[in-house]
Design brief:
By secondary structure, this protein is mostly helical. The protein has 2 domains: 204 residues, no CATH class; 234 residues, no CATH class. Helix content is 74%, strand content 0%. The protein contains 22 helices and no strands. It is globular, with a radius of gyration of 25 Å.
Length: 490
Amino acid sequence: MLLTFLSHQRKAFWRSRNRSGSLAAQFVLGFFMLYFLIVALGIGFGMSHVLPQVFPDQDIITSFNGIILYYFAFDFLMRLQLQDLPTLSIVPYLHLKIPKRKIIIFLNVKALFSAFNLWPFFLFLPFCLTKIAPAFGGMATFMYIISILSGMVLNNYLVLYIKRKSITNVWFTVIGLLIIASFAALEHYKLISIMRISDLIFRSIAAHPYLGFVFSALAFGIFRLNSSYLRKNLYAEELSSVDEKKVSTDYAFLNRFGRVGELAALELKLILRHKRSRTALFMGFLFLLYGFIFYKEHAIAENAFGQMMFGAIFMTGISIIIYGQFMFGWQSAHFDGLLSNRINFKDFIKAKFLLFTIGCTMITLLASFYGFLSPKLLLLHLTAYLYNIGFGTVVVLYLATYNYKRLDIKKSATFNYQGAGANQWLLMFPYALTPILIYLPFGLLGMPYLGLIIVSTFGLIMLLMRGFWVNYITRKFEQQRYKIAEGFRE
């Protein structure tokens, strides 16, 4: 049966309309995959030389043990962002005498064919064979490899389970990222050491090889959990699409906004029910962790807000940047229907502003945990928040009136550049540079807090002028709507 499914997938690929584009994309992806696998192989064989330089005061095996859990934490985050759900159009099969069990087996097997599942072989296997085997013997080496491969399988199916559950409840992703952020904060403050924990675990496996089966048991448990979820939610569409059961169209917190709230609720459903828009939403939560890259101790201590401004704008406004760059392309499939219905365009634009404000507010509140690093960052985030909802929303919606590129929101966002154009690149320049240019003179004069106040005031003034900007963008949208519709039909 697996061969039959694979045969059908192959024929569907070669018979599709966009076969040439898919081939080109697969060729490019294959090239990058080969490149990264060669890099991983080089790191694997060179690890015995690199580790002593990176950790000069540690035993090489201690260093190797310590980076294993770090690798799987990074692997988890990358999978969450880039790994696609394995899909199979099951409508033609449901009326046939094919057990659901076989369809689930196919989806689970297909999920293993990922570049993420090849990297541990290239990264860790050479070191295990050249260093672990002489130090601990064959049995311990075998259990090292079993443990690492079990961790790979654990991450593979855990990410798939979280993504599938997040289709109906985004809090699964949010809670998972908050847990990871908590561990990162504990590591930052040296309350725990993940490297020591990882070394302790794998030294225990070296001493008592049977402990390696704990990873195998965890991987098997997640595999069973994932299969159980698929068995209960196998419905007549792609498994990556949301369940189409009747749900309430009422979001109580949007009722107070009247017709604008109703339009915002409809767009919120569009976001949650389609693959590409939902991915854009999840990426917004993932980028919350980027503060650990942008916020350095010396920059915080020296009040160098100019160095951290881009990071704050980027994190707190990521929902505006990622989702807003394709506005109004998200509605390209039914844009003609919007124009033919009796929709007040002013309310339509107001609904966009409302969604941006809600999204930016949620992200900013979630990013408040950076206050544990320094209360100064809360002031920086407040400044970025006022700038994003005041000026950023206006820039995004204005440039959206010049976006004529159609967008297929049912497709994955990973390596998908459909709908991208010059406007998306131009968007970043005024968005990112404006607050930095406003702050820069005050930063150079040694008045960093005054600079934050000026940027906040600018954002607040733009926010108070929202009525003017709604009217202005509405007029622009009315002038451009037929050009936009024509572009979406291509």
